[in-house]
Every structure is written in C-alpha cells, then in structure tokens.
Input
Amino acid sequence: MGELEELLEKSNIKFPRPINRNAARHLLMLIMRDMPAAHVGYSSTVRGDIDRLDEETEKLKLEESDAEFGGTISNKRTRRTSYFKLGRVDRPDLPGGYCSLIFNTIPGYRLDEHDPNEVEIWKRTREIVEDYFSQNLDMLSNL
Output
C-alpha cells in the first residue's frame, strides 16, 4: 500500500450503508459518549425548494435535502482537534444521505507526519463507527 492510500484508509471511514441527518447526529452523540475527554461540534446545512403542485391550486410542495454536514472531534486532554465532513451519497434515489466520515488531512503530509494525537482520534472514531453499524444496521438504513 502506498503512502497516499494508507493516509486515505486511516482518515476516511466508509459506512456500510447510508445514513440520514438524524442518524448522523446520533452517531456523533455516541462518539462523544464513548471517547474519553471528547468534545464534538458540528453544523449542517439543509437545502430546500418550495414549488406549487400545479398552476391551478394553492397547494405547495416542499422538498428538503441535506447539503453539508461537518464539524470537529476534539480530545480535551491532548488539546487536539480533528475536522471532518460527512461524504454525501451520490445516488438520486437516496437524497440527503451520507456514506462516510472524512477527516481533513494536511496536503502533502504522509500519515506519519500528522499529529499522533489526531490520528488517534481518527482510530478511536473508526472503532466507534464500526461498532455502531454492527449493532444498528437495520435502524440506519431508514432514509
């Protein structure tokens, strides 16, 4: 495995199934609960469209989908913060779904050049995510 592939493998956590915004928030709460001295912050953006069902009625149609979801996972003991975003599902039949958690990396740095405390956040987050999906696979597929 090359250096770039190793860095991508450690910093990207692929979900076995897509999750929606509510499941993503639940997952972040578990990360907070299960990672000692952690602090999790996030923000999400929702994109919406409002349109008339047709010209002759006053009924409106509202469609919303998640546009962006990202944040930080910090270790208060080491004072290290790692930024992340959730990777969007690229499927029209699953609007608003997320398929991965992607940690920011430093361009041009190899894995061993990243702060070990930050890499530990990635590792521990991966363990919690994998455990979460192994226990809640059916619930998470409800998009």
About this structure: The chain has three helices and five strands. The chain has one domain: 3-44+71-137. The beta strands are 12-19, 38-52, 60-75, 80-88, 98-103. Residues 3-44+71-137 form one domain.
